[in-house]
């Protein structure tokens, strides 16, 4: 892919973040999401790409739904995994950890997944190859602690605050590791495991499958590790798992299964303060954004601090 897409990816997430952040704390989740979704679409429809959204919204009321064609058709053929606003509830309530994220790859990069749930385990580069999603959390936490040269009591596990993760939380508390709860946004939790100086050592628990694919793109670029299995509790959900796993409902998905090509890049911009990035900060006449842009081809990680002057931009 053209390296200029790296900057274009940052523009996509910055524009979405600026629009969504305008409605932070107003209590309207749909308004926050629609603002980010429309903003990202406005840039995408003019970009010099021949693109298709592979991982997007399941609802066609959104601008960026699964299968949506994007770009002006004059540039490189690419596919996208997008989340204009990850954590719409936290953005609407003024909470922590909402981000805008986009991953761009060459054709046939991203595994197409339905809007189901997945068990996930994610770790950073120093723990690559030491975890096993089929092992109990006690074993995996011990392995991570050993790989990082830490006591178990010093390991911080990021977990999505959902009822479905209640039993896992009890297990981790019994083991003695620390827990970082996040209301939404387990993409940022997974990425944080592989960012230098992060307080997050690993991510565990059940969350969205589409978010898992985007997190896998980031960890592929950063050299981290991720494993996932479809979560099912009834016949319908098991059938979804079997269809995705070609008859194997308990298939383990690794990064190479979720991200099938090497030419991929990813951009993340903070909307509200979180475990990975600070949120949008406003000043008189403008705002500041903080983004991370990662490219697998060169393993380059860019931290981009941008100042946006509204006198020279569209009104957000």
Structural class: alpha+beta
How many domains, as an integer? 2
Oligomeric category:
single chain
* Series of H and E elements: HHEEEHEEHEHEHEHEHEHEEEE
CATH architecture of the largest domain: 2-Layer Sandwich
Strand content: 25-35%
State the CATH superfamily name of the largest domain.
Answer: Fructose-1,6-Bisphosphatase, subunit A, domain 1
Largest sheet: 8 strands, mixed
| pLDDT averaged over residues | 94
Question: How many beta strands in the DSSP annotation?
Answer: 14
Distance between the termini: 30 Å
- Shape verdict: globular
Helix content: 25-40%
Describe it for me?
The protein has helices spanning 5-21, 29-44, 88-93, 137-148, 166-175, 186-192, 209-222, 235-244, 255-258, and strands spanning 49-55, 69-70, 76-86, 99-105, 117-123, 156-160, 178-182, 202-208, 225-231, 253-254, 264-270, 281-283, 286-295, 300-309. It is of the alpha+beta class. It has two domains: 5-107 and 262-312, Fructose-1,6-Bisphosphatase, Chain A, domain 1 (2-Layer Sandwich); 117-258, D-Maltodextrin-Binding Protein, domain 2 (3-Layer(aba) Sandwich), CATH 3.40.190.90. The strands form two sheets. Strands 1, 2, 3, 4, 11, 12, 13 and 14 form an eight-stranded mixed β-sheet that branches. Helix 1 packs antiparallel against helix 2 and helix 6 packs parallel to helix 7. The protein starts with a helix and ends in a 7-residue tail after the last strand. The model has no long low-confidence stretch (mean pLDDT 94).
Comma- or semicolon-separated keywords:
316 residues, alpha+beta, Fructose-1,6-Bisphosphatase, Chain A, domain 1, D-Maltodextrin-Binding Protein, domain 2, 2 domains, 8-stranded mixed sheet, 9 helices, globular
């Amino acid at each position: 892919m053209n390296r200029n897409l790296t900057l274009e990816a940052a523009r996509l997430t910055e524009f979405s973040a600026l629009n969504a952040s305008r409605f932070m704390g107003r209590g309207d989740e749909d308004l926050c999401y629609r603002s980010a979704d429309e903003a990202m679409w406005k840039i995408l429809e003019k970009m010099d790409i021949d693109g298709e959204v592979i991982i997007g919204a399941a609802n066609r009321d959104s601008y960026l739904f699964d299968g949506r064609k994007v770009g002006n058709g004059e540039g490189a053929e690419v596919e996208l995994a997008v989340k204009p606003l990850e954590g719409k509830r936290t953005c609407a309530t003024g909470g922590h950890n909402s981000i805008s994220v986009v991953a761009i790859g060459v054709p046939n990069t991203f595994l197409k997944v339905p809007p189901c749930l997945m068990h996930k385990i994610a770790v950073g580069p120093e723990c690559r190859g030491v975890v096993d999603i089929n092992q109990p959390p006690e074993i995996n936490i011990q392995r991570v602690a050993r790989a990082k040269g830490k006591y178990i009591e010093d390991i911080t596990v990021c977990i999505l605050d959902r009822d479905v993760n209640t039993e896992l939380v009890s297990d981790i508390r019994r083991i003695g590791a620390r827990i970082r709860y996040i209301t939404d946004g387990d993409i940022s939790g997974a990425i944080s495991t592989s960012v230098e100086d992060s307080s997050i050592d690993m991510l565990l628990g059940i969350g969205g499958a589409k978010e898992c694919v985007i997190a896998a793109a980031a960890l592929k670029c950063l050299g981290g590790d991720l494993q996932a299995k479809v979560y099912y509790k009834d016949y319908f959900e098991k059938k979804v798992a079997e269809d995705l796993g070609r008859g194997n409902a308990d298939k383990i998905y690794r990064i190479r299964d979720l991200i099938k090509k090497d030419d991929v890049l990813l951009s993340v911009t903070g909307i509200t303060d979180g475990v990975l990035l600070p949120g949008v900060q406003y000043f008189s006449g403008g705002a500041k954004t903080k983004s991370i842009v990662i490219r697998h081809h060169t393993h380059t990680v860019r931290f981009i601090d941008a100042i946006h002057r509204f006198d020279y931009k569209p009104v957000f």
